[in-house]
Amino acid sequence: MTVPIADYALLSNCHSAALVSRAGSVHWLCFPRFDSPSFFAQLLGDNGGHFSVSVTGCETTQRRYIRDSLVLQTTFQAKSGTCQLTDALALGKGKRGHDLGENSPPLLLRGLRCVSGSVEVLVECAPRPEYGLIQPVFVPAEGGALGRGGASVFFLSLTTPYTLEQGKLVSTFCLQQGESLCFGLEYASTEEAQPRSWTQHHMQEMITDTEKGWQSWAAIHQRYDGPWRDLVAHSGRVLQGLVYQPTGAIVAAPTTSLPEVPGGNRNWDYRFTWVRDASITMEAFWIAACPVEAGRFFSFLANAASAQLSQDKYLQIMFGIGGEHDLTERELPHLAGWSNSRPVRIGNQAWTQRQLDVYGELLRSASVLSNKLEALDDLTRMFLVQVADAAAAVWNEKDQGIWEIRGEPQHFVHSKLMCWVALDSAVRIADLLQSPEKVEQWSSVRDQIRSAILAHGWNGKVGSFTRAFGSDQVDASCLMLPIVGFLPGDDPRILSTIDAIVSRLTDERGLVYRYQGDDGLPGQEGSFLLCSFWLAQAQALARRTTEAKQTFERAIAFVNDVGLLAEEVDSKSGDLLGNFPQAFSHVGLINAANAIYEAERSETQLFQSFIS
Asked: Which of 33, 118, 332, 418 is least buried, going by the fewest C-beta atoms within 10 A?
């Protein structure tokens, strides 16, 4: 049976991630990295493997994250009693604050406690490494069971009686009020030392230590004090949970192939880092997390991309979380996909596309972080100069655009806009780049791009900036025009563009689609949550604060019970769609909330100035 995407909760140790269903079953886990082959993948097919904990006769379940953490607590209520399940991916022992995620082991911890009465519990652990291709072999061992399969070795620590059957461990037992026990699943490759068994005491200690690790990070990082404070803070923790700590990379989402269209083929692997996410993610980190994380992300992007522009003027749009360039896509025909949405894909062929917006994202990121980048090393400085020069050289070419259209290249307005941003940012930080001699050239090309956008990107008949030069199709990416400062938020053309997007690109719930028109793929995707938050942000910049708050509230109505958002919302059913949780959606939430906060503060200051 397909589990709704909204029924999942996220676990993270800043190396890898797991998704746990409302019923207490781990349906997705990749060890040891976000982009490693899955260990459990029932999310994408019944043969993908799972690790379930269920209470016999359970009538209701409730769940929450333990305060200021990504440690999940699920409460099962049965007629006979109440049981709490605490789930965590272990953090490195004693790692706190900025060190969160350092030396995190590939270890899943599951703790059970009977709160009242008595409960009968059924545990099933059925790993299926390498995306379900391998049925491993379990053997009894002191302190639990040892498993092997393919390149994987793993140890399940447990003290309850169990049986082994066809690559699955099954344990049934009873807990009385006040009794508790833990399970620990540790992974290793066949090249590493054999994973160990853990005592009950040590496993409980590690769960507690993981709680404290997350709480220490929140205590020193989260200072936002505007509206929707708890939701913004939690989104900041979600973004931190999507950081690959060894490099500072941020995955767009920890999953692959959750569809944009149920039963369709718009199914992509999002376990990579997109350059296009850079600057708005930097801003979100600044608001809801810490400039340190933003700086590490920028350093990762600069390091991953720096060698490329010395060979070519085109910059790759995305990278693996270790900085890998080759992300070749392939299909996994043995998996049926979520809700029979085939094909299941790993890798992402979009890495070969040409997208001209990436230059602006990188240089805007450097501009956002300029106060923290007081002294650039020579390689990074030279690279950013090359980025600006490349933007000046290619801005007038066609590309696939921010939405990675799998059709003919076009002169997308957003791509031109971000080339303008690249050169505008380069001019602003020319001293940091030690390139004052280039300011005149960069300024000249920047002004050419501005004139082209105003002449060819604006369609007077439509009353809006449009998807591409000469087009009559509205596109939500045009909401970035005021967000990046190309035009003031209250410019008449921006106000008209906002109105056009509201009237032509929103569904019956008021959520925003990305664009109109053919994109080279069959099927119709859902409304896009990031774009809905962009609309709220643009409305705030337009001083339409009441409308901005209404748009924002419509979007956050789709946050699930543990504060998570996917990429899209099904326009018919209202169900969450797409990879989950989606960094872009949480970035949009943070930035929109802050824009509304700033707009309200400005209105208050203006009013106080008026009455005084």
From this structure: 118
Q: What is the pLDDT of residues 426-469, one digit of tens each?
A: 999 999 999 999 999 999 999 999 999 999 999 999 999 999 99
Apex CA 136: angle with CA 133 and CA 141, to 5°?
165
Segment 220-266, tens digit of pLDDT: 877 788 999 999 999 999 999 999 999 999 999 999 999 998 888 88
* 222-611 belongs to CATH 1.50.10.10: yes
Measured at the CA of 283, the angle between CA 279 and CA 285, to 5 degrees, comes to: 115
C-alpha closest to that of 516 among 408, 417, 409, 403: 403
**If we measure between CA atoms, which residue out of 403, 355, 350 comes closest to residue 515?**
403
Coil/strand/helix, residue 591 = helix
- The answer to whether 238 touches 322, Cβ cutoff 8 Å, is no
DSSP string, 220-250: HH----STTHHHHHHHHHHHHHTEETTTTEE
Q: Output the pTM of the full model.
A: 0.96
Predicted local distance difference test score (pLDDT) of residue 194: 82
* Domain spans in the chain, listed from the N-terminal domain onward: 5-218, 222-611
Which residues on neighbouring strands pair with residue 460, listed in sequence order?
none
How is residue 249 written in tokens?
A: 């990379």
Residues 6+ apart with CB under 8 A from 437: none
Of residues 369 and 63, which shows the higher confidence score? 63
Residue with tokens 């904990």: 53
Q: What is the DSSP letter of 15?
A: S
Q: Report d(CA 251, CA 242) in Å as an integer.
A: 6
Among 231-240, 350-359, 468-477, which stretch is predicted with the lowest mean pLDDT?
A: 350-359
Quote the CA–CA distance of 495 and 198 in Å, as a whole number.
Answer: 61
Contact 70, 109 (CB under 8 A): no
| Statement: residue 538 has pLDDT above 90 | yes
Same fold: 5-218 with 222-611? no
Do β-strands 180-189 and 163-165 pair in parallel, antiparallel, or remain unpaired?
unpaired
DSSP-derived pairing of the beta strands 137-141 and 144-149 = antiparallel
3-state SS, one letter per residue, for 338-396: HHHCCCCEECCHHHHCCCCCHHHHHHHHHHHCHHHCCCCCHHHHHHHHHHHHHHHHHCC
CA angle 477-493-410, nearest 5°?
Answer: 40
Specify the residue for token string 């305060």: 67
Task: Map residue 272 onto helix, strand or coil.
Answer: coil
Kindly report the CATH number that applies to the domain delimited by 5-218: 2.70.98
* Exposed/middle/buried for residue 451 (C-beta within 10 Å: 0-12, 13-18, 19+): exposed
Secondary structure (H, E, C), 555-580:
HHCCCCCCCCCCCEECCCCCCEECCC
54, β-bridge pairs: 122
| Two structure tokens written together for 352 | 């070969």
Measure the CA–CA gap between 383 and 344, rounded to whole angstroms: 36
**Is residue 165 over pLDDT 70?**
yes
Half-sphere exposure of 164 (CA within 13 A, CB side): 14
**pLDDT tier, 610 (very low <50, low <70, confident <90, very high otherwise):** low
Residues facing residue 86 across a β-bridge: 73, 111
Instruction: Kindly list the distances between the CA atom of residue 612 and the CA atoms of 602, 605, 607, in Å, as whole numbers in the listed order.
Output: 15, 11, 9
* Contact between residue 147 and residue 153 where contact means Cβ atoms under 8 Å apart: yes
From the CB of residue 70, how many other CB atoms can be counted at a distance below 10 Å?
Answer: 28
